[in-house]
TrEMBL record:
<comment type="function">
    <text>Antioxidant protein with alkyl hydroperoxidase activity. Required for the reduction of the AhpC active site cysteine residues and for the regeneration of the AhpC enzyme activity.</text>
</comment>
<dbReference type="InterPro" id="IPR003779">
    <property type="entry name" value="CMD-like"/>
</dbReference>
<dbReference type="GO" id="GO:0051920">
    <property type="term" value="F:peroxiredoxin activity"/>
</dbReference>
<keyword id="KW-0575">Peroxidase</keyword>
<keyword id="KW-1015">Disulfide bond</keyword>
<feature type="domain" description="Carboxymuconolactone decarboxylase-like">
    <location>
        <begin position="94"/>
        <end position="168"/>
    </location>
</feature>
<comment type="subunit">
    <text>Homotrimer.</text>
</comment>
<feature type="disulfide bond">
    <location>
        <begin position="131"/>
        <end position="134"/>
    </location>
</feature>
<dbReference type="GO" id="GO:0045454">
    <property type="term" value="P:cell redox homeostasis"/>
</dbReference>
<dbReference type="InterPro" id="IPR004675">
    <property type="entry name" value="AhpD_core"/>
</dbReference>
<protein>
    <recommendedName>
        <fullName>Alkyl hydroperoxide reductase AhpD</fullName>
        <ecNumber>1.11.1.28</ecNumber>
    </recommendedName>
</protein>
<comment type="similarity">
    <text>Belongs to the AhpD family.</text>
</comment>
<dbReference type="GO" id="GO:0015036">
    <property type="term" value="F:disulfide oxidoreductase activity"/>
</dbReference>
<dbReference type="GO" id="GO:0032843">
    <property type="term" value="F:hydroperoxide reductase activity"/>
</dbReference>
<dbReference type="GO" id="GO:0006979">
    <property type="term" value="P:response to oxidative stress"/>
</dbReference>
<keyword id="KW-0560">Oxidoreductase</keyword>
<feature type="active site" description="Proton donor">
    <location>
        <position position="131"/>
    </location>
</feature>
Length: 178
């Protein structure tokens, strides 16, 4: 299906998503690895089978094997961290914040790719998963690494559009199955 096929699969009421999908991926100023790692990580995080199935081959073709694996690792570790840290933040008892997490997340320290790319992918996944604490943490690392606010926001735009496309296509598939 590819990017063009995903756009054509969107229903008429989602015309804005068609335009945005082409814009945030097709016209992105991010370097190829940062862009396609973000696309792959958020396609995984969106849980949209069609979106992942159609965007993964393009991501695999662009990314090195190490970057491909690191993008999947970012989605995996953030699926865990986002639930854990979001819950810790939402609990009214602040003492949970003083407890040791005890969760392995070694890949964050040694992702096998440029640290800023991995942080960008983790940040974008955290946007989908709604973890404010993780968003703040990754944004601070990205800004200290010299990324502009515009670059950081680019990852959020990609995450929001890919997620919206996944939700819309899954909705249409579910309604068609009735």
């Amino acid at each position: 299906m590819s990017l063009d096929a995903l756009k054509s699969a969107l229903p008429d009421y989602a015309k804005d998503l068609k335009l945005n999908l082409g814009s945030v991926i097709g016209n992105s100023e991010l370097p190829a690895q940062a862009l396609w790692g973000t696309v792959l990580a958020v396609a995984i995080a969106s849980r949209g089978r069609t979106v992942l199935r159609e965007l993964e081959p393009e991501a695999r073709a662009v990314l090195s094997p190490q970057a491909y694996t690191a993008a999947k690792a970012a989605a995996a570790v953030m699926a865990m961290n986002n639930v854990f840290y979001r819950t810790r933040h939402l609990l009214s008892d602040p003492e949970y914040g003083n407890l040791r997490a005890g969760l392995r997340m070694n890949v964050i320290g040694n992702p096998g790719v440029d640290k800023a790319d991995f942080e960008l992918w983790s940040f974008a996944v955290s946007a989908i998963n709604g973890c404010g604490q993780c968003l703040d943490s990754h944004e601070q690392v990205l800004r200290k690494a010299g990324l502009s606010r515009e670059t950081v926001q680019e990852a959020v735009k990609i995450a929001s559009v890919v997620h919206a496309v996944a939700v819309t296509l899954d909705t249409e598939e579910t309604l068609a199955d009735r």
